[in-house]
Design brief:
With 324 residues, the protein is mainly α. It has one domain. It is built from 14 helices and no strands. Helix 4 runs antiparallel to helix 8 and helix 7 packs antiparallel against helix 14. The protein is globular and about 55 Å long. The chain starts with a helix and ends with a helix. The N terminus and C terminus are likely disordered.
Length: 324
C-alpha cells in the first residue's frame, strides 16, 4: 500500500461522520458567542494579557481534572479504554505547542481589539464579524495549497461573509477603528490555528488541548509581566467572565473544536464556526443591550442558511463512502 493510499484511508476514517462534527462545532459556537460578552465585560476591568493568562490557567486546570477523571473511568472500565495511537509523544507535543502559539496570537489580538473599541462601537458584534472572516481566509489558503472546494462550500463561504456583514456592520465600513485591524489580525491567527488543528486531529484531543492551554498561558504570562500590572483585587472583580472564558470557552470550547474537526473539513468547519458571530450578536443583544434589528436578523438567517448549505457536500460524500 502506498503512502497516498494510507493517507486516503486515514482521511476516510477520520471524516466518516461529518454531521457529528458539525453538531460539536455548533455547540462550540454557542459557547464562544457568549464568550464575546464575557470578554467585553472583562475588557473594562483588566488588561488583555492578564485576562488571557487567567482564562488559560483555568482552562489548563479544568482539562487536567477532566483527563484525570477520564483515566480513572478507563481504569475501572466504566468507559472504553484508550485506543492505541501509533503517533509519538513528540508529535503530540509539537502539535500542542504550535496550536498554543497560534491560539495565543488569535486570542491576544482579539482581546486587544475588543479593549480598544470606543463604548458606542458595539464591540461584541463587530469583533464577532471580523474574527469570523477566517471563513474566507481558510478556503483561500486551502486553494493555494491545491485543495479543491465544491461549489456549495464556495457559495456557503460567501453567504456567510454577506450574512456577517449584515449582522455586525449595520453602518457599513464607515468609521474604521484600530480594533477592526486587530480583529482582522486575530482572524489570520485563528486561520492558522484551525489549519494546524486539522493537521494534528489524530492526536488525543484532551492532551492536545491541555498542551495548547499551557503554552498559550505561559506566553500570555510573559506578555503580562512586560506590559501590564496585574492586581488581585481587580481579578476578583472580574472573576465571572474569567471563569466562563477559562472553563467553558477555552477549556471545553477549544477541546470540542478539536474533536469536531476530526470529522469536518477545515473550510466546512470554518463555515460552521462562523455561527459564533450570530451568537455573539444575540448574546450582545440579550445581555449587553446592543441593537439587533431587521438587518441583523436577516444576517443571522443568511449565516444559518450558509451553514446548512455547507453540509451537503460532506453528507453526500459520506453516503457515497458508506455504499462502496
Amino acid at each position: 500500500m502506498t503512502m497516498n493510499q494510507k493517507n486516503n484511508d486515514k482521511e476516510k476514517v477520520q471524516r466518516k461522520n461529518p454531521l457529528l462534527g458539525t453538531f460539536l462545532l455548533f455547540v462550540t459556537t454557542v459557547i464562544w458567542g457568549a464568550a464575546f460578552t464575557a470578554q467585553s465585560s472583562a475588557a473594562d476591568k483588566i488588561g488583555s494579557f492578564t485576562f488571557i493568562t487567567s482564562r488559560q490557567i483555568l482552562a489548563s486546570v479544568s482539562l487536567i481534572i477532566i483527563a484525570a477523571i477520564r483515566s480513572v473511568l478507563r481504569r475501572h472500565k466504566i468507559i472504553s479504554p484508550q485506543t492505541q495511537n501509533k503517533t509519538s509523544r513528540k508529535r503530540l507535543l509539537i502539535g500542542g505547542i504550535l496550536c498554543g502559539i497560534t491560539l495565543f496570537l488569535g486570542m491576544s489580538l482579539q482581546q486587544l481589539g475588543i479593549s480598544s473599541y470606543p463604548p458606542d462601537a458595539a464591540s461584541s458584534g463587530r469583533s464577532g464579524f471580523l474574527t469570523a472572516t477566517y471563513v474566507i481566509m481558510i478556503p483561500v489558503v486551502q486553494r493555494i495549497t491545491g485543495k479543491k472546494l465544491s461549489i456549495p462550500v464556495i457559495l456557503s463561504v460567501f453567504g456567510c461573509l454577506a450574512g456577517m456583514y449584515l449582522l455586525c456592520l449595520s453602518n457599513g465600513f464607515t468609521g474604521i477603528y484600530l480594533g477592526d485591524l486587530l480583529e482582522l489580525g486575530c482572524a489570520a491567527g485563528f486561520t492558522s490555528y484551525i489549519i494546524i488543528v486539522d493537521r494534528f486531529n489524530d492526536e488525543d484531543c484532551i492532551f492536545l488541548s491541555i498542551i495548547q492551554s499551557i503554552v498559550s498561558a505561559l506566553i500570555a504570562f510573559a506578555a503580562m509581566l512586560l506590559t501590564e500590572k496585574p492586581d488581585i483585587g481587580i481579578l476578583i472583580q472580574a472573576w465571572l467572565p474569567i471563569v466562563y472564558a477559562g472553563v467553558l470557552s477555552s477549556g471545553i470550547g477549544y477541546t470540542l473544536q478539536i474533536i469536531g474537526q476530526k470529522t469536518a473539513e477545515p473550510t466546512v468547519a470554518s463555515v460552521v464556526m462562523s455561527m459564533e458571530s450570530v451568537f455573539a450578536a444575540l448574546f450582545g443583544w440579550l445581555i449587553l443591550g446592543e441593537i439587533l434589528g431587521i438587518r441583523e436578523l436577516s444576517g443571522c438567517i443568511l449565516v444559518f442558511a450558509s451553514v446548512i448549505l455547507a453540509q451537503f457536500p460532506d453528507h453526500k460524500n459520506n453516503k457515497t463512502r458508506s455504499t462502496t
